[in-house]
Amino acid sequence: MANESTCFKCGKSLESDAIPIYKKLINRGAEEYMCIDCLAEYIQMPRSAIEQLIDFYTQSGTCALF
Fold this sequence. Notes:
The chain has one domain. Helices cover 45% and strands 0% of the residues. By secondary structure, the chain is mostly helical. The model has no long low-confidence stretch (mean pLDDT 93).
């Protein structure tokens, strides 16, 4: 099992918002996570779009994960 602070796909250290956005978009109960770059590739979405979602959820206060 990968360490919570590293991406299970590439091994890169996770940014602070990588875990909550992974849980929001993929699986709220996940125990392993992808970095934002690997997540973007996996869901075929530009990194910038994921960053916009992170900003939205952070500013809106509508998601308990952020």
